[in-house]
Write a structure and sequence with these properties.
Elements lengths: L4 E4 L14 H18 L4 H7 L1 E12 L9 E4 L1 E6 L4 E10 L3 E14 L4 E2 L4 H8 L3 E8 L1
Parallel strand pairs: 4-8
Antiparallel strand pairs: 1-3, 2-6, 3-5, 4-5, 5-6, 6-7
């Protein structure tokens, strides 16, 4: 898969007193994009519950490049930056762009998979492997050994 992009909707509740998007909304947009990607690739939240696995985040960082206001149109994408070959650990990056491709923010996160019954990190099942295997990869993608 070359790209995965989603259009974002800015709601009144997403704004701060200065009239631009609150910082925490960016993280919600990242989660929305990741779950939309997984769902589009046959790994929905309900299927993860059945498989008794879920993603966990160790680190999440957003770098804000340009102010975003309510009337603007935005797209968010995702790309795999690095991963173990079994996708048990990974780094994903989102770019949020304004109209015309202007970069507004970059979210980078490191994560893994947890067994939701044992509450321990785990090697994910084949369904996770299949979904992450088709995730767009960054130009500088690297396997973690």
């Amino acid at each position: 898969m070359n790209q995965f992009k989603k259009k974002l909707q800015i709601r009144w509740a997403d704004l701060d007193p200065n009239g631009h998007v609150r910082h925490s909304v960016y993280y919600d947009w990242g989660a929305y994009c990741r779950i939309a990607f997984l769902t589009a690739n046959d790994l929905s939240p309900s299927q993860m519950m059945e498989l008794q696995v879920g993603p966990v985040i160790f680190r999440e960082e957003c770098v804000f490049k340009k102010e975003v206001r309510q009337e603007e149109e935005l797209l968010i994408d995702l790309e795999l930056v690095q991963a173990r070959r079994n996708f048990s650990r990974w780094t994903v990056r989102h770019s949020i762009c304004k109209e015309g491709g202007v970069l507004a923010a970059v979210i980078t996160l490191d994560g893994a998979w947890i067994d939701t019954v044992k509450r321990k990190l785990t090697t994910p099942p084949v369904q996770v492997f299949d979904a992450y295997g088709v995730m767009p990869k960054s130009a500088a993608f690297e396997w973690l050994d």
